[in-house]
Amino acid sequence: MSTIDLNGIDPSGIDLNSDVGESFGNWSLGDDAAIISSVSSVNVACAFHAGDPSTIRATCAAAAAAQVTVGAHPGYRDLAGFGRRFIDMAPGHLTDEVIYQIGALQALAAVAGTRVSYVKPHGALYNAIAHHTVQAQAVVDAIMAVDAGLPVMVLPNSEIQRLADAAGLRTVVEAFADRAYNPDGSLASRSLPGAVIVDPARVTEQALRLAADRRVQAVDGTFLDVPVESICLHGDTPGAVALAAQVRTALQDAGIPIRSFV
């Protein structure tokens, strides 16, 4: 461990984002209203990995009431696997599926009094496009087709970042307060023990280091530089509501403003 340098904090602050709207029908996941009160941006499930029209509309309405920025959270068509299983598909088909999801969220967000301001792919799709050139390009093509002004959240030094930058899309580098990192900057597989960090002190420390130092400690103890603009707190992490509130308070107490990157 090393101390966190709170000197020279970026006065522009940091965005906090979380995945929400992931209930489905009678099945409920997370406390979206509580999470929304602690973050500045929310990634709303688009009904392929989770979510349904009524959940999406209600989630967007809650975000609008709290003046929290709404982003599209498209994933693979995989309700049973919660979008956390890789699906190999033709790139044109993937492009159309992402277009469909963004479009559905745009309509429901508009009815709820807000709008879709960015895109953050979900789960296995998010992980795949960090290195899978064909699928990364398919996602870029989808966003370009819908609205070339929509930023896309990315892992730093990823394939999706490279291709989105080349296409002229704005990329927003994201890091995770509640996930373990490999030494190469990739996320540790959820199948490994400790990949999801649930200890409140560790989550808070990681969030503070990311926001203040733009660094994260990998599983081997090394420190990685991360030019982060947004920090994610997963809405389905155990104790997510308390974690989000604690991280928000810690950042504010350190003099780090919390505000959307949009």
Kindly describe this structure.
By secondary structure, this protein is an alpha/beta fold. The chain has eight helices and nine strands. A seven-stranded parallel sheet has the order 4-3-2-1-9-6-5. The longest helix is centred in the middle third of the chain and has 21 residues, at 91-111. The two termini are 33 Å apart. The mean pLDDT is 94.
Task: Kindly list the characteristics that best describe this protein.
262 residues; alpha/beta; 7-stranded parallel β-sheet; 8 helices; 9 strands; globular
How is the secondary structure organized here?
Blueprint: E1 15-20, H1 32-36, E2 41-45, H2 53-66, E3 69-73, H3 91-111, E4 116-119, H4 123-128, H5 133-146, E5 152-154, H6 159-167, E6 171-176, H7 200-213, E7 215-217, E8 223-225, E9 230-232, H8 240-253
Parallel strand pairs: 1-2, 1-9, 2-3, 3-4, 5-6, 6-9
Antiparallel strand pairs: 7-8
Helix pairs in contact: 2-3, 3-5, 5-6, 7-8
Low-confidence stretches: none
Strand content: 5-15%
Backbone shape: globular
Work out the helix count. 8
Oligomer: single chain
Instruction: State the end-to-end distance.
Output: 33 Å
- Spatial ordering of strands, largest sheet: 4-3-2-1-9-6-5
- What is the average per-residue confidence, as pLDDT, rounded to a whole number? 94
Please tally the β strands and state the result: 9
Largest sheet: 7 strands, parallel
Q: Mind telling me the C-alpha Rg? A: 17 Å
Please provide the ordered H/E string of secondary-structure elements: EHEHEHEHHEHEHEEEH
Give the helix/strand class.
alpha/beta
Helix percent band? 25-40%
